[in-house]
Write a structure and sequence with these properties.
By secondary structure, this protein is an alpha/beta fold. It contains 9 helices and 10 strands. The chain starts with 8 loop residues before the first helix and ends in a 6-residue tail after the last strand.
Length: 206
């Protein structure tokens, strides 16, 4: 299958239904602007936020919006990058894992509502696995695949080469798939978490 083709409306509806059955909160939007507006609706003023490195967030204007200081949120990413001392930066990064909201994307989302996140350092994975009480994933519908086998293939054969090239062009160094988090379900009755999926019917991210 092609990993750069938007899913049909039937598949998007099927995926949204599967996410809803798991207790997640999916919404389908048409484009980057609508995706950013939806994220702004979800996150209340005064909330602490953190985000992972994401081409999708860059493309919808989220990163620029947060950096503008107009969001009304307490962005925990700024202290991390603003800290020059490596030891203090490590502490700031650990403290940021306790953000009220984590905003990111996924490498792949299955039609049955499972999803994959991968990382070189693992810095964003604590948010997703447990720490952040609210997760907001902005996901192009081209990332929807039939099953976990195809999700892994999408990560390894499609996402990784592009992310590696992107890292080399920006930072003169590549990346690796060092750590993988597979989320099959969330015990929402126990955790009380809210997990939002903003499904975008536009070609965004890798």
């Amino acid at each position: 299958m092609s990993f750069d083709t938007l899913a049909s409306s039937t598949i998007v509806d099927r995926t949204a239904t599967a996410l809803t059955k798991k207790g997640y909160l999916p919404v389908v939007v048409a484009d980057a602007g609508a995706a950013l507006n939806k994220v702004r609706e979800i996150i209340p003023a005064g909330a602490t936020t953190m985000n992972g490195a994401s081409k999708t967030l860059e493309q919808i204007g989220y990163l620029e919006f947060v950096k503008s200081g107009k969001s009304g949120w307490n962005d925990l990413h700024a202290p991390v990058w603003g800290e020059k001392d490596p030891a203090k930066r490590t502490i700031a990064r650990k403290q940021a894992t306790l953000s009220d909201y984590y905003v990111g994307s996924v490498a792949a989302l299955t039609e049955t509502g499972e999803f994959i996140n991968a990382s070189n350092t693992g810095s964003q994975l604590p948010h997703i696995a447990y720490n952040s009480h609210n997760l907001v994933f902005v996901v192009s519908t081209k990332k929807i695949v039939p099953n976990m086998a195809e999700a892994m293939r999408r990560l390894e054969d499609h996402v990784f080469p592009q992310e590696d090239q992107n890292m080399r062009s920006q930072f003169k160094m590549g990346t690796q798939i060092s750590k993988i988090l597979i989320t099959r379900q969330e015990n929402l009755q126990f955790s009380g978490r809210k997990i939002h999926f903003v499904l975008v019917t536009a070609n965004l991210g890798f």
